[in-house]
Design a protein that fits this description.
This protein has 92 residues and is mainly β. The chain has two helices and seven strands; from the N terminus they run βββαβββαβ.
Length: 92
């Protein structure tokens, strides 16, 4: 079985409406909506604006995290993010 390889995360920026602008290695940008996640633990903690804005890229670009308990993989961000065209950030 062939293993799927997803692009690593290069940068992440919190956006209004509990969304994230995720830039991947290779230059692709996707917007990821965190609101559906916030209905379950431990993601419900992201309703706190201060915590939500503390998002950072994990070492090696294998995902993003807010804490040791709250994180998302690069595959989740890639598969469920919305691709953005150059110079345009929709969904904010």
């Amino acid at each position: 079985m062939k293993k799927t390889i997803f692009p690593k995360v290069a940068a992440v920026t919190p956006l209004p409406g509990r969304k994230l602008l995720v830039r991947f290695v290779g230059g692709q940008n996707k917007v990821y909506d965190c609101r559906p996640l916030m209905e379950t633990a431990p993601f419900s903690a992201l309703q706190n604006e201060s915590l939500f804005r503390q998002v950072k890229v994990d070492v090696g670009g294998y995902g993003i995290s807010w804490s040791d308990r709250i994180d998302l993989s690069e595959s989740e961000l890639w598969v469920n993010g919305t691709l953005q065209t150059a110079g345009c950030v929709r969904g904010t």
